[in-house]
Amino acid sequence: MFPPGRRGQAVARRFRHKAAAVDGEMVDVINNMPLVRAFCGLRYEHDRFDATVDRELTARGRSLRYSGETPAASRRHHRSC
């Protein structure tokens, strides 16, 4: 009975870590925008941010599938609140 709960906690923890990484990347790029522009790094930063968001979305999907809640069901739940 407890091992699935522990696995679910690990999945949720990985998702939270990936979501925090997206926030950190966004803050990093915004704070360093003058340097990014000075060194023509817009494409690089865009690609780096996209990769971070893709990892977060993958973790989110894994977390939602593990909990049994689909993204559509999640949207319905939030609309009813």
Describe the structure.
This protein is mainly alpha-helical and 81 residues long. The chain is 89% helix and 0% strand. It contains four helices and no strands. The protein has helices at residues 2-31, 33-38, 42-67, 71-80. Helix 1 (2-31) runs antiparallel to helix 3 (42-67). The longest helix is centred in the first third of the chain and has 30 residues, at 2-31. The model has no long low-confidence stretch (mean pLDDT 76).
Note the main attributes of this structure:
81 residues, mainly alpha, elongated
Shape: elongated
Low-confidence stretches: none
Largest sheet: none
Helical region count?
Answer: 4
Q: What's the SSE pattern? A: HHHH
Structural class: mainly alpha
Strand content: under 5%
Q: Compute the average pLDDT.
A: 76
The radius of gyration is 17 Å
> Cα distance, first to last residue?
31 Å
Number of distinct beta strands: 0
> Helical percent range?
over 70%
